[in-house]
Amino acid sequence: MSKDEKNLAQVIDKIAKMDEPRRSVVQRVHDVIMNTAPTLKPRIWYGMPAYAISASTPALLTLRNDERLNLAITEKAPFRAGGGVDGKLMPTAWYFENVDEDTERRIADIVRSVLN
């Protein structure tokens, strides 16, 4: 089994150990990430499912299962100021409780943003 396969298995196992309904929600977000950017490599990073360019590079995205579910862009991803009313603030984390089609589209946009 390759390192990428082992890392993916660890992420799938981590998600599988989550309680419902969060497990299904996080699995859905994982699927959106992988469908949007199949070249990203899932792995566990600081105890969280995470996604990187390769097994040896820092994670660009993380999925947290704490008091609230959280999708975050790490400091290793390219940042761009939000502009507009946010000025120089850089959006880096999004909390969610469930995922619908609109949320899936937004997550896909976020994933694409870390690859540019």
Automatic annotation (TrEMBL):
Protein name (record): DUF1801 domain-containing protein
Domain of life (superkingdom): Bacteria
Organism: Leucobacter denitrificans
